[in-house]
Amino acid sequence: MNEKLRREVEHWISEDPDVKTRAQLTSWLTEENESELNSCFSGFLEFGTAGLRGPLGPGPSRMNRAVVSKTAAGLVTFMKRHNLASIVIGRDARYGSEDFTRDTAEIMSGAGFKVYVLPRPLPTPVLAFAVRKLKCDVGVMVTASHNPPQDNGYKVYLGGTVTGIKYEGSQIISPTDKEISKDIANSAPLPEIPRKTNWNVLDESILNDYVSATSLLAKNPNSLSIVYTAMHGVGLETITKVFSNSKFSPLVLVKEQAEPDPDFPTVNFPNPEEPGAIDLALKYAKDAEADLVIANDPDADRCAGAIVENGTWRMLRGDEVGALLGEYIARSGVTNGVFANSIVSSSILSKIAMRYGISFTETLTGFKYLSKVENLRFGYEEALGYCVSPDYVNDKDGISAALVLAQLASDLKGQGKTIADFLTEIWERYGFHGTRQISIRTPNLEAINSIMNLMREAMPKQIANRNVNSFDDLARPKDSLPPTDGVRFYLEGPVRVIVRPSGTEPKVKCYLEVVSSHANEANRILDEVEVAMKKLMVR
Questions:
Q1: Over the chain, what is the mean pLDDT?
Q2: Within this chain, do residues 283 and 364 fall inside the same structural domain, yes or no?
Q3: Model pTM?
Q4: Residue 121 and residue 99: Cα distance in Å, rounded?
């Protein structure tokens, strides 16, 4: 067995605070299982703008108590350097979340900070709300959001202005992530990191305050029948309190998915976007003859909707919900503020903003960028992320978005209309904006780099028999956007195509948009371009 690897593993075992991961590494060491050990010791789990996210397991390349403890210690160094002295910590119900929360609280307490912990597993928006409500300098949410069951993660929020960036309760961006990453790498050996247990477990008032603030978004509830799924996550308690406080009828719950379950037994991936994920909810909706289906992802920062259209239930695309909420909010009489979406989202929000005289801006992909938009009034990204109440939650919030969507449905029902009718109005006014996402899962980083290099260096002149009219390498953008790993090009049609690596999963994403006066025409073009792009990306 490689002696360097053996010494590294033995040293890690000597510091690992978790008896289970120590035992696993010891077993592999005894068996001289270099394959597993090399996989777990392929470098420290990368800390980026999404914090940490990865599969549970032993060693520096996995999510475990040792990695989280080292990360917390690095965050302590960062906080002291910038005179940050308070932190609130939240968690979801995944495997490891409670342990990771306790380790973080102990290390933050040991550093002498004021430490608050949410009373139990609660949605990410409640943590983001708590950062601002408690005027904390830092927030940590232990969650892997919509990732598969074997994963967990660690999101970092900042409460004020740090290194010249106005965070105001939003997730970190570069270069803050790089600074924290260096601090993690230089952290003291784990046995030397001080730990204490004098943190404050928050009482129910923090959840009640979130519920009260969010409930204000509903002005005129009607008797709607709404089917809701929590996708085995932590959204149920909070959303039921919000809807009850807003005087909506009780939600019809998808019982099989209502309670937290870290195994996510009824879905392949606990993400409403994934095929089949909301099939159970749609069955409930048919049986209940419901008006609307609402789905949250496991940490409830994303919101999906489904409606009846021409007698058939279907899930709304993220861009459709963005258009619905944008048009609804614009019609409510917005007199100031900015509308914003990510570059991979539909162009329709810019047209809505223009019609109503509202300022508009575009950001890089990721809600952490949308939340930095000055004077944001409404922001969204196509991956089911919506910010409808930025004064309270400066992040995507699947619960407040669900409430506004329900209020829209309620208003329309009072007029004898449906969400499908409202969508038709939008398409007639702005043109049909067809969007579609292609995801190519990859085994490793090299495969991702190979696809991106192909996009940059071997782009054909035609795709789906349509000329490539323009090409923009987003690593060297032609507009005012900061550099990012991705490409954007336009085909005759007009057809917009954006290709970028996922920031949270091992896959490459391709985003298509076609604008046409007819939905059938747009969908036909999308079909053709999708087939061509799949062939191009996997060749």
A1: 95
A2: yes
A3: 0.94
A4: 12
Whether residue 478 is contained in a domain is answered as yes
Q: Which of 86, 109, 145, 400 is catalytic?
A: 145
Q: Is 187 tagged catalytic?
A: no
Q: What is the DSSP string of 249-313?
A: PPPEE-GGGTS--TT-TT-SSS-TTSTTTTHHHHHHHHHHT-SEEEEE-TTS--EEEEEEETTEE
Find, among 477, 474, 481, 469, the residue nearest to 509 by Cα.
474
The tokens for 536 are 């191009």
Domain presence at residue 37 = no
Instruction: Note whether 264 and 334 are same-domain residues.
Output: yes
Give the position of tokens 């979801």.
Answer: 92
Q: Do residues 177 and 259 share a domain?
A: no
Query: Do residue 479 and residue 528 come from a single domain?
Result: yes
Question: Are 117 and 148 part of one and the same domain?
Answer: yes
Strands 252-253 and 165-166: unpaired
- In the block, tokens 């350097």 appear at 81
Handedness of CA 98, 99, 100, 105 (dihedral sign): positive
**Residue 330 domain boundaries:** 217-430
pLDDT tens sequence across 45-99: 999 888 999 999 999 999 999 999 999 999 999 999 999 999 999 999 999 999 9
Q: What's the rounded Cα separation, in Å, for the pair 384 and 386?
A: 7
The DSSP symbol for 396 reads: -
Domain count, the chain: 3
The helix (H) or strand (E) run that includes residue 511 is strand 507-516
